[in-house]
Amino acid sequence: MKTNLKELLEFPTPFTYKVMGLAKPELVDLVIEVVQRHAPGDYTPQVKPSSKGNYHSVSVTIKATHIEQVETLYEELGKIEIVRMVL
User: Fold this and answer.
1) pLDDT tens digit string along 3-57?
2) Contact in structure between 60 and 17 (CB atoms under 8 Å)
3) Which of 10, 17, 55, 57 could form a disulfide with 50 if both were Cys (CB 3.0 to 4.6 A apart)?
4) Angle in degrees, 0-180, between the axes of helices 27-38 and 67-78, rounded to the nearest 10
5) Which CATH architecture has domain 25-80?
6) One-character DSSP codes across the chain
7) d(Cα 75, Cα 70) in Å, to the nearest integer?
């Protein structure tokens, strides 16, 4: 049974993105810059290093207002050069 994300969410809703990228100092700023363009707000991202320290994960929760916003942010966050994965 395949379920569409749109069918599972009622908007507005909190929505958390977990962005994994290279452990570079600019990663958090790049992620927040993209998030601010599509969901302006005051964010406090959580950053966790990988076990070897080569990667960082940045978690940020937005107040999503519609499915297109959620999908656009997945796409735009994935375009950041040092990002390897967006969950």
Assistant:
1) 577 677 899 999 999 999 999 999 999 999 999 999 999 999 999 999 999 999 9
2) yes
3) 55
4) 150
5) 2-Layer Sandwich (3.30)
6) ----HHHH--SSEEEEEEEEEES-TTHHHHHHHHHHHHS-S----EEEE-TTSSEEEEEEEEEE-SHHHHHHHHHHHHTSTTEEEE-
7) 9
